Amino acid sequence: MPFTLIYYILGVVLYIIALPLLFVLTFKYKYKESIPARFFLFKNPRFNSNDKIWFHVCSLGEARALKPILKELDEEVCITTITHTGQEEAKKYRAEVRYLPYEIFLPFWIKKQKVLVVLEAEFWYLLFVIAFNKGAKIILLNGRISDKSVKSYLQFAWFYKKMLSRVEIIYAQSEVDKNRFLALGANNIEVIGNIKLAGEITSTKEYTKPKCEVIVGGSTHPTEEESILEAFVEYRKTNEAKLIIVPRHPERFDSVYKLMEEQAQKHGFSLERFSETQNFSSDMILVDKMGELNNIYAVSDIAILGGAFRTDVGGHNPLEPAHFGCKIITGKHFFHQKELFKYVHHVQYVESDEILKALQNASELPPSMVEEKIDLQKVIDKIKEIKNDGN
Fold this sequence. Notes:
- GO terms for molecular function: Kdo transferase activity.
- The protein is an alpha/beta fold.
- The chain folds into two domains: 21-193 and 375-388, 3-Layer(aba) Sandwich (Rossmann fold), CATH 3.40.50.11720; 213-370, Rossmann fold (3-Layer(aba) Sandwich).
- 39% of the residues lie in helices and 18% in strands.
- The chain has helices at 2-25, 34-40, 60-65, 67-73, 84-90, 106-109, 125-133, 150-155, 157-164, 175-183, 224-235, 253-267, 274-277, 293-297, 319-323, 338-341, 355-361, 377-388; strands at residues 53-56, 77-81, 95-99, 115-119, 137-143, 167-172, 189-191, 213-220, 241-247, 271-273, 284-286, 302-305, 327-330, 344-345, 347-349, 369-370.
- Strands 3-2-1-4-5-6-7 form a seven-stranded parallel beta sheet, sandwiched between helices. A seven-stranded parallel beta sheet has the order 10-11-9-8-12-13-15.
- Helix 11 runs parallel beside helix 12 (253-267) and helix 11 (224-235) crosses helix 17 (355-361).
- The model has no long low-confidence stretch (mean pLDDT 94).
């Protein structure tokens, strides 16, 4: 109790200090909905329901990974997210959806639920403590501790031990993750693999594939588009191909279009915004619509998967381009997706300045593919067992 009180007071102090910055960030497109909801409770009331199953996820990928679980549970649930993209994905389910408030609001915001299922590495101390104290059994699902962060976790093992002592069971992604959780003092850990392997990967629209080779830069981040564009310009000198770029974050659509426009004008390429044309008639296409990436993978030959050419992102999900038979090229910094890449074969891992060489080598390689599956039944059974306990 004394530690929790001290932690709460520090949280209040940090909140007061950060108020000017939070106010400024509310005017940025990326945060215009999430920051008012999370830090000022704007249009973010408590759940209407008690005694339900509550899932907490961070962003789009984790929200999407819930689909096979929610399909089997077949009941209305509660879902909290951190990001706007996660929120939009969660709203597709039969669920009450909210943003998770900043921790100092949680003692007054959380209602008693039967089960709290927290995905991956969403370790918010007061979320665990308050939910536990209000009677929720906590499951950590798809638990992971990345190579990049393990050292800092171990330095504060005493803190994470306090938090994880409230957890009923941890379903870890790998044996490596299990051992890291054990080192933090956690108990009752089972390795089930990455739950994203259980997700159904589908396209929502069918587009006609261009007759030439199609290269897609998927889920790209700043600096990655420049590297992809430079490689494409050189590749086009000896190959007939189109380049489609799908930035990870919608607030970057305009800035990425300007980068593409500069290269198009310089080299005589045609360029289009997908939102305006809905086709692939130009040499370069910016996909400036959300929810289209799988549809684009379905008509692509090569996928340059973003998020791993930088050191600070950790890569993105390779299962989707592999499912559609793309030949995957990605960077070497995929630490957040390490477990998934373990199951995907025929991937080229390169640095930014090696993308051109990887494109040239792609003709000699088979499409990337996924060979593994995961059984989520024990997870679903556990959630139902806890939910029905005492009913």
